[in-house]
Amino acid sequence: xxxxxxxxxxxxxxxxxxxxxxxxxxxxxxxxxxxxxxxxxxxxxxxxxxxxxxxxxxxxxxxxxxxxxxxxxxxxxxxxxxxxxxxxxxxxxxxxxxxxxxxxxx
Length: 106
Description:
Blueprint lengths: L1 E7 L5 E7 L11 H20 L4 E6 L4 E6 L5 H21 L4 E4 L1
Parallel strand pairs: 1-5
Antiparallel strand pairs: 1-2, 2-4, 3-4
Helix pairs in contact: 1-2
């Protein structure tokens, strides 16, 4: 199961996330749930780096299927939209493929 935690600042803006685990939907290399979530996560990070001026830090461990992303400052408009898009996307994958593969904490 992929466990997802989203972090928010004192104003309720998204400020980061932590993803860990593997979905277990299919064998490694064929797991479309893991692939979808991974693509969204890395696209979000790359997009924030490219389109936002908000500084961030990332910690990752590929073997454990772990990544933690945190903004160092308050999210600018672009970072906020991109993080909210990730929240929407992971909710959609969870609804489409089942709650047994993804657990989300907000």
